[in-house]
Design a protein that fits this description.
Length: 317
């Protein structure tokens, strides 16, 4: 059977096109469609209407990006992904995994629940509660304020005094505050570990003059080998189980080293970019994702075929 793969992407980026090309090269039929174009339609047999599928459903869905939009629009789009799951269509990554990663407070809760090292973190509503936390914590450590739904380092600020706390309207009333992890710098370093189907595909170090070491903010990707010890490399790979704690099929796990060498997991990205990572590693990440997804589908089909049919007569005893 020729697998039909739906790539969900709201931007026709190089990574989406590369994934489509590699899946097609392996014999799959691929359509790239933005979530905004997929409709709930009770007149359709499945309840969904997908451009290019003529009423049919894909064998798998691969989510590359979800465009920003109103609360209503984003809720509806995630509802479409939930609907695929309800229809037993594999979704990489599932709506639940994406929701867990987008909401930093839930990410942190799940990391802590999985006994993964992550900095002490507080997520509260209202400036009064944020001030109470800052008054208690600031004598001992600066705090990092992050947007609950932010990405790529945008909106992050260092809180060293009560006056650094923004007004409620600047953060939509929600304050996500995390202990700052002190580390040497400049240059500052952190790590991105890319995981797919439970396996570590690749990792990189990011070096920057700014303590916020995102590549899009000017940080330089570098190979991990040679930057850290073999033991530290093994520890980085072990911490990548953070992806499983979130329930992500593929993810970028962000890890920061403290001044004493201890490693902390900061975030898990369920729709990770990999241009910077690809520039410093030998493995082709798009190839690896395509291979892993098609293997998952093949294994799933084989397992289904091996299950005894309900119509099969029992063997004579």
């Amino acid at each position: 059977m020729i697998p039909r793969i739906l790539i969900v992407s709201d931007v026709s980026d190089v990574r989406s096109r590369g994934l489509a090309a590699r899946l097609e090269r392996r014999g799959a039929v691929v359509a790239t469609v933005p979530l905004a174009a997929i409709a709930f339609d009770t007149g359709s047999p499945s309840g969904l209407s997908i451009p290019g599928f003529d009423g049919a459903l894909p064998d798998a869905v691969l989510v590359r990006s979800i465009a920003a939009g109103s609360f209503e629009a984003v809720t509806r789009r995630l509802g479409v992904l939930h609907a695929f799951g309800k229809l037993s269509i594999p979704v990489w990554n599932s709506a639940q995994a994406i929701e867990r990663c987008v909401d930093k407070s839930m990410t942190t809760f799940l990391l802590k629940n999985a006994c993964l090292p992550t900095p002490p973190t507080f997520a509260v509503e209202g400036r009064a509660m944020a001030e109470a936390i800052a008054e208690r914590e600031l004598p001992f450590t600066p705090l990092v304020l992050k947007p609950l739904f932010g990405a790529q380092g945008r909106g992050i600020r260092l809180i060293e005094n009560l006056s650094d706390l923004p007004a409620e309207e600047e953060v939509n009333g929600v304050y996500y505050l995390q202990h700052y992890v002190p580390r040497p710098g400049p240059p500052f370093r952190d790590f991105r570990v890319f995981v797919c189907a439970g396996e570590v595909l690749a990792m990189m170090s990011r070096r920057g003059d700014d303590w916020i070491t995102n590549v899009n903010r000017g940080a330089v990707p570098e190979q991990v080998s040679g930057q850290v010890s073999v033991h530290a490399e093994t520890e980085l790979a072990a911490l990548a189980r953070a992806a499983a704690a979130i329930g992500a099929d593929f993810a970028g796990v962000d890890i920061v080293p403290a001044a004493d060498g201890k490693l902390f997991v900061l975030e898990v990205n369920s729709m990770p970019a990999w241009s910077g990572l690809q520039s410093v590693v030998a493995v082709n990440i798009a190839d690896a994702i395509a291979d892993a997804l098609l293997k998952f589908l093949a294994d799933r089909t084989e397992a289904a075929a091996a299950r005894p049919s309900r119509l099969t007569a029992p063997a004579n005893s």
